[in-house]
Amino acid sequence: MSSEDEVRALSAQWDAALLANEPERVASFMIDDWVYVGPDGVTPKSDIIGWIASSRLRHDRMASVGAEHVVHAGGTIVLTARKTSAGTWEGSPYTADEWITEVYVRTGDGWRCALSQKTPARSDA
Questions:
Q1: How far apart are CA 46 and CA 32, in angstroms?
Q2: Domains of the chain (ranges plus CATH)?
Q3: What pLDDT does residue 123 have?
Q4: How does residue 122 score in pLDDT terms, banded at 50, 70 and 90?
C-alpha cells in the first residue's frame, strides 16, 4: 500500500472514530501538538478531545463528497476533501458542508495528523 493510500485509509478510520464519538480513539490520529484551524482561529487538540469526551460536540453523520486530493511532499502528506457532516454542538443540531485539509506527518507510530483546516463549501461549488 502506498503512503498516500495509507493516509486515505487513516482519514477514513478517523472519520469512523469521530462518528463513534470515542475521544481517545480520535486523539490517536493526531500528534500531540495538532491544531484545528477554522473561522474562529486555532483550536488545540485538548479542546476538541474535551468537547467530544463531555458530549459538548457529537458527530452523527459524515460523508465525503467527490474524490480526495492527495499531495505527497517529502515526509508530509496533505489530503484535501469535501465532507458533509451533522451532529450536535452544545445540544443543538448542526450540519456542515466543508472543504477540509489535513496535514499528515510520519511519526514512530505511523502517519498522524498535525493540522486540520476547514473552509465552508459554497453551495454552487
A1: 9
A2: 3-120 (3.10.450.50)
A3: 78
A4: confident
User: Which tens digits make up the pLDDT trace of 44-61?
Assistant: 999 999 999 999 999 999
Cα torsion angle, 120, 39, 106, 60, sign: negative
CA–CA separation, 45 and 40 (whole Å): 15
In this structure, which long-range contacts are made by residues 104-112, counting pairs with CB atoms below 8 Å and at least 24 apart in sequence? Answer: 104/7, 104/10, 104/76, 104/77, 104/78, 104/79, 105/31, 105/75, 105/76, 106/3, 106/75, 107/31, 110/6, 110/10, 111/3, 111/6, 111/7, 111/10, 111/77, 112/29, 112/30, 112/31, 112/34
